[in-house]
Design goal:
199 residues, globular, mainly beta, 4-stranded antiparallel sheet, 5% helix
């Protein structure tokens, strides 16, 4: 409503706030991003987001009820490996909830990919009331490609900022299977197919 807008960056990753003329107001980055002495922005996001695969940071961003939601494109490489193997083998992506007033991360949710055939999120938009449309896709074209839009709902999903992850028995969110998440009492966002773009 104030005429400003938000963009997502997949490299650091970061979320950026611009005024109506396109001038950068502020850039928000993961904690410890400035450890080298170079100021890359305000360290307001969880440190783990620094473990994104190259070119697989925040791909989608949406605004709802005064909060900014940034969607990681592919799973974080958590624990971090030289060949990004933990990222490439995980179905668990993260949705970050950011409060632009307090400039703090206020929530985190798990989005589960349908399969590794679709290895990334492409975009997202708000529907209101905790619901979003999310594009899930691969890099293929033709009849065998995976290009689907899902409707997701945050209602009932576990907010990782308030969750006890001790039930994962030492595993990270990205390394856990659905059954392991369930056993630990961690529930991903619900999703249902909205449209299959290939079909």
């Amino acid at each position: 409503d104030d005429g400003t807008y938000w963009m997502a960056d997949e490299y650091r990753p970061s979320i950026l706030h611009f005024d109506a003329t396109g001038k950068l107001i502020e850039r928000y980055v993961p904690k410890r991003s400035n450890i080298s002495g170079v100021n890359t922005g305000v360290e307001a996001l969880p440190r783990v987001y620094g473990q994104r695969r190259a070119n697989r940071g925040f791909e989608a961003i949406a605004y709802q009820n005064g909060k900014v939601y940034a969607f990681i494109q592919s799973a974080l490489d958590n624990p971090d490996t030289a060949n990004d193997s933990n990222s490439r083998n995980s179905l668990n992506l993260r949705i970050l909830e950011f409060d632009p007033v307090t400039k703090r991360t206020t929530g985190e949710y798990i989005y589960r990919l349908d399969s590794l055939n679709a290895d990334k999120i492409g975009d997202a938009t708000s529907l209101g009331n905790g619901k979003f449309l999310v594009v899930e896709r691969d890099d293929n074209s033709g009849s065998g490609a995976f290009k689907k839009v899902f409707q997701i709902d945050l209602a009932g999903a576990t907010d990782l900022t308030k969750a006890n992850t001790g039930g994962l028995k030492g595993k990270t969110i990205e390394a856990a299977s659905l059954s392991e998440l369930t056993e630990a009492g961690i529930k991903p966002v619900s999703k249902q197919l909205f449209v299959d773009l290939i079909a």
